[in-house]
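Provenance

Sequences were taken from public entries as deposited. Structures were produced by running a predictor on each sequence independently, with no templates supplied. The record for Peptidase M14 from Maribacter algicola is shown for reference.
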Amino acid sequence: MKKFHCLSIAFLILTIFTSHAQDITEQLYETYEKYKEPTLGKRRIKHADLQPLLEKFRRNPKFKVNRVGTSIGGKSLSLVSIGSGDTDVFLWSQMHGDEPTATQAIFDILNFFDSTDFEEEKEAMLSNLTIHFLPMLNPDGAELFQRRNLLGIDINRDALRLQSPEGLTLKRVRDSLEADFGFNLHDQSTYYNAERTEKPATISYLAPAFNYEKNINEVRGNAMKIIVFMNNILQKYAPGQVGRYNDAFEPRAFGDNIQKWGTSTILIESGGYPEDPEKQEIRKLNYVSILSAIYTIAKENFKEIDISEYEKIPENDRMLFDLKIIGATYNLMGDSYVLDLGINQVEVDYEDHDKFWYSSRIWDQGDLSTYYGYETLDATGHEIVPANVYAKSVSTMVDAKKLDAKKLLSEGYGYLKVTNIPLKELNSPIPLHVVGENFKAPDLQLQPGINPTFFLKKEGKYTHAVINGFLIDLSADDISIPNAMIFRK
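Predicted structure for Peptidase M14:
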């Protein structure tokens, strides 16, 4: 009876705290725009973008900013610290150069700590904790918007050899802090979904294993409890869109080793969110969930969370396409077949790696009934037909823009000949492919890897166009797409 009474009190305390934390979380979510760092509004951020911000915090007596290392390319690695508590919390981001979402969120969090709001909550955090941020661990990769560093290695597989200066810096900082808690901040593919659902895994968590047996000690257990807490918070803002990353032990990975070295390590992976290509909503969710986690660490209420709840978070699947077309009829060599198509809109960087354009691909076809799409069209009763080349050519891109693109598409034209295509142009400014004078429309032979360009017809009428993997409803007023392609030959 005594044990039951103690458990009841613990549950009551946790319930009261959770309710209080959710109230704070709602306030964090609602007031986010006050703290969002306005200079970091896109994914392709670079080392130079961070330096004015780091300098601002370096001049601020609330913070300590120290250079703790240098990348292979000579770019500085900086650690920002705030707080005076005995418990050290260490957050690092962008170990992979093309995974910037949490880097942006870190500067939002720093702005929050520099504000005059939430004084009671900030006092609880900063008096009990010392919080350390190492944003953009791989600045050379960020410059090229690529996963690996200039040595061509994955820093997250360098925890044993410690050959990269970036990995060596991470190890040295973790050891010098003897960090109690660590947040390993990444982005994952937007094509992950929450297990057996159509919902994207907008945020995925993992308490990494520290051995092949996947044992759970107090260090890893604490990470699991904090993840349960964060998941409960996020369900309000992204219901059903939280996943759990596979916990197979990887002996070379930093997360697994930092867990083994005694730091309760939480991996956060930012995935996909509908109509959020720059991941700004996901950035906001990072901000809210990380601050909420820091607060529960400061209050130590996470200790009462039932660890078994961790396994109830659905695992990640990778079963999403950008566009899924269901049940379309496809004619090949005189026979008719029913196909589902899975199409992904693949990003291609411009040379400066500041912006991107799309060169889409058919990713899979056949029976895709176990897959999902960010956008899905039931094309039952529709026939897939080839896109035609418009018979008349125009002289310039300016002339191309003057044409009635919707009318051309409604007549089945997906290609427009332009006599003078500027060499600097990499993609079409209109929702038709721009092609050279000698271009001939390719035979329609659907297979994975090709650029998806075709039409859907029903009862003899063109109803939809797929141009560069983007679906256009020909009955809609808006027929714009991010870009079509240029084929010069």
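Residues 320-487 form a domain with the Urease, subunit C; domain 1 fold (CATH 2.30.40.10).
The first helix runs from residue 2 to 30.
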